[in-house]
Amino acid sequence: MSIPGYRPSDTAEFALEFGGARAAVVASDVPDEFGVDDSVRWSPADAHEHALSEPVDLVGLDGLAGVSAMRIEVGYDPTGLPPGASPTDVAIAAKTDAGWETLDSTVDLTETTVTAVLNERPPGATVVAVYDGGEH
After folding, report:
1. 50-66 pLDDT, tens digit each
2. Beta bridge partners of residue 22, listed in sequence order
3. β-pair partners for 58
């Protein structure tokens, strides 16, 4: 999973096969424990009210230093969209202390994935694909 503008050799990539979540990062320091895992803190019922995927945790996020770019990709279930919703109105949301923050995201309709590319760490370690009503 490449990050636009960065060589694959500069990218550390981590994947979670269950849930279809992946993360790639370009950073000066990537801790050994960094990766993607099932969320042990949030169940789908606790997740964002419009969740279209299982919540996943970005493990070791606090240990990342010097992040130049980070790409987060989450597979989602389009059958969870409300009736009449556009299939492009999907985004990644990150759990913060204040609630869920929707990240600027791009949807791949063929692969049914949603991707956010950031120039810093995300605002929270737990992420989920959500229907955002076209607000991203």
Report:
1. 889 989 999 988 888 88
2. 15, 73
3. 36
